[in-house]
Amino acid sequence: MGALGHFLERQGIPTAGISLVREHTEIVRPPRALWVTFDLGRPLGKPDDAAFQSRVLRAQLAMLERTDGPLLVDYPEDVDGEVDLTGWACPISLAPRPSDTLGAEVDRLMTWYDRAVAARGRTTVGTSGLDMPAAAALVTGALDGPLPPAQALKLAVDDLRAFYLEAASAFPDPGTTKTRMAWFWDETLLAKALLALQPKLAASEDPQHKLLGALTLIPATERHRLGAAP
Amino acid sequence: MVKRLSELPEVEAKHLSPERVKCPTYDDTPLLPGKPLAQRRVAIISTAGLHKRGDRAFDRDDGSYRVIPAETPASDLVMSHVSVNFDRTGFQQDHNVVFPIDRLRELVADGTVGSMASVHYSFMGAFPVDAAEPHAKHLAGLLKADKVDAAILIPV
Fold first, then answer.
1. Quick one: which of A123, A211, A227, B118 has the fewest CB in 10 Å?
2. How far is Cα B108 from Cα B113, in angstroms, rounded to an integer?
3. Could you say which residues from 74 to 103 on chain A have a Cβ atom under 8 Å away from some Cβ of chain B?
4. What is the secondary structure of A7-50 as a DSSP string?
5. Which of residues 60 through 79 in chain B touch A, CB cutoff 8 A?
6. What is the pTM of this model?
7. pLDDT tens digits for B96-107?
8. Under 8 Å between Cβ of B118 and B143
9. pLDDT per position as a tens digit, B8-41
């Protein structure tokens, strides 16, 4: 991100950026950056809090008035940590049965996904162009047979992940982002499928499959689960 | 909450370490002066890998950008960033936490900002910088053609 500040400002466009990792910005030294302590993925801080987002945006825009730089300004507000609801359990029974399939799990979540879309008026599912049963079939097929092209698999998996987490946000007791993430990795057949798929991708001779397995299938924070998959 | 890397759990700190990320270095770029904010035309440049549903998804090492017209409904915005190491649930809940177009529109309405660009843009931040530089130069010309004189850069 900081590199774009250099590129655009040198081409005559004044820029002001947000920095999510101060240590990176200290090295890249873009013209103007506002460092925030928010979670990666939330550069404006709090979803559904227009006043909070506006304060961040105003602080970012205010830097445009300055020409003494490079500027790295620390934004003064933090987002309070989420309340950790220990003991939260998924309120609807999604626990897989021995005969269960990924397709059946997707089918069970569909009602909750539909409720989430109705509540928000939007969905972020839709990069792969597949419907969710087809995306699930692609993942199942990748496990049981030849691997599809890496990009097709990656987009299908991203869509499925978004589908699961949007569905979970509409559960009767949705918990928090952290508990829903734990539910995804602890309890779902999709997570089990991804963990089982990783070694197969890593062993593929296709370099794109290898990269998907090595970097962009399993988050760094969940890689400790590899090897523990059944 | 991300604070200093030294305060993060080891696996996350290691993942974000400047050595692993290979942060590029540049000579300092002089900061351009400009009109007061209330007279500026502002564009949002995201690196969240955003695009309209149906537009070409971002692929690994993709240094290009996607075009997001200002009138794009939030329901048409999707994200195909290659990284799995950030939280997407904030974006799922409220696009403004990543792409603050409604906030910018409000600041234009109350006179804080002069006007909003007719088109905004998104890159996919995991680009190799050499792949993005020619696209960024091209983008600067598009911004000028839209009379934009300030860009806010929003990572993810």
1. A227
2. 5
3. 78-79, 81
4. HHHHTT--EEEEES-HHHHHHH--SEEEE--PPTT-TTS-TT-H
5. 60, 73-75, 77-79
6. 0.91
7. 999 999 999 999
8. no
9. 888 888 888 988 888 999 999 999 999 999 999 9
